[in-house]
Automatic annotation (TrEMBL):
This is Ascorbate-specific PTS system EIIA component. Gene3D superfamilies: 3.40.50.2300, Mannitol-specific EII, Chain A. CDD domains: PTS_IIA_fru (cd00211). It holds the Pfam family PTS_EIIA_2. It comes from the Bacteria.
Length: 256
């Protein structure tokens, strides 16, 4: 597997859950995509009730896993970020805010995944950034150690590829003015072909107002009321740039 965790397997919840319900919710993406079978979480719950909260690794993190690979169809990992922390049994002093579910088809891969995950989160600066991250894309890049990979933007409009191209060029010009154009790849689509972008793992979409109700882009997208209003675009692009830390805290002057 080229990435430790898929972006679609990162979820957030504001629900107040007990630890068992949190385990089921954390594992749901893996059950939905067929990576694990029914009984996987029940096996982990049984192990916890027998051996204690072995999944709690500290620093607000738990990694739910089992050595029994009979419940696993495909190596996979998911994350549930909890606004309301959970505790397991008598372990009241170690609240869990980040609940991973790890499923592997063999013990060697089991250790490899744990090693990759703990290596990234053992770095205090990465851990702090992970704790502060508020978007799936940001967390995805941190966990997969993709810091050197370019951020991927894409544009999509209902009016056709020309409008998408205009937005792309304006984004490109603004990023060049800020001195960060080399950090971003920009793709253009229309409502007829945007679904072909799924294998590119787009970080942020810029979608025209007339296309908003015609496309399904997940959570990471920015709606533009006008495809030619460069002032509006620059303002919204600044918000996106801050989200992905493109400006490194710098306050760049307005281009328009």
């Amino acid at each position: 597997m080229n990435e430790i965790i898929k972006k679609d397997n990162i979820k957030f919840t504001d629900l107040k859950l007990d630890w068992k319900k949190a385990l089921y919710l954390s594992a749901k993406p893996l059950l939905d995509d067929g990576s694990i079978k029914e009984g996987f979480i029940e096996n982990i719950i049984e192990n916890i009730e027998k051996n204690g909260p072995y999944i709690n690794v500290g620093k607000g993190i738990a990694i739910a896993h089992t050595k029994d690979s009979s419940f696993v169809n495909e190596d996979s990992l998911s994350l549930l970020r909890l606004s309301c922390p959970i505790t397991i049994g008598e372990d009241k002093g170690s609240p869990i805010y980040n609940l991973f579910t790890l499923a592997t088809t063999g013990s060697d891969k089991h250790l490899k995944y744990l090693s990759s995950l703990t290596k990234n989160l053992s770095d205090e600066s990465i851990l702090k950034e992970f704790e502060d991250a508020t978007s799936r894309s940001h967390i995805h890049k941190l966990l997969n150690n993709l810091d050197d990979e370019k951020i991927k933007f894409a544009t999509v409009c209902a009016e056709g590829i020309v409008s998408s191209f205009m937005i792309k060029e304006n984004i490109s010009n603004i990023l060049s003015y800020w001195g960060v154009r080399d950090k971003v790849e920009i793709f253009i689509y229309n409502i007829d072909n945007y679904e072909t972008a799924k294998n590119k793992a787009i970080d942020e979409w810029f979608v025209s107002k007339d296309a908003e109700d015609k496309v399904d882009l997940g959570d990471d997208y920015t709606v533009l009321d006008s495809v030619i209003d460069r002032v509006e675009l620059e303002k919204k692009l600044k918000t996106v740039a801050e989200k992905y830390d493109l400006l490194n805290g710098k306050k760049n002057p307005n281009m328009f």
